[in-house]
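Hi U.,

Before I forget, here's the chain from the pilot set. I'm dumping it here mostly so it's searchable later in email.
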Amino acid sequence: MEWTFLFIAGLFEAAWAIGLKYTEGFTRLYPSIFTVVCMLLSFYFLSQALKTLPIGTGYAVWTGIGIIGTTILGVLLFNESMDFGRLVCIILIFSGIVGLKLISP
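Structure:
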């Protein structure tokens, strides 16, 4: 169950990171509320996952999911580039997440 919590936490991390773009420095009410709620949910699910997962593994996977999700959403929502070098780096992050999952107890 801890890996499910960690995955959910990573999704909420990507959501709040994207939400920051829409808050315009926390000057827009609804995007700001959305962002803060996603932050709280992300930290909550991360804390649940870290009850049993090692902190280094949990934190690395949490940020990795956030990085990948934010990058994909940035490409889709904001027309950010996805050149070859950036794609290779994202694949390396993904492979690190999979590796951590495979070697974790």
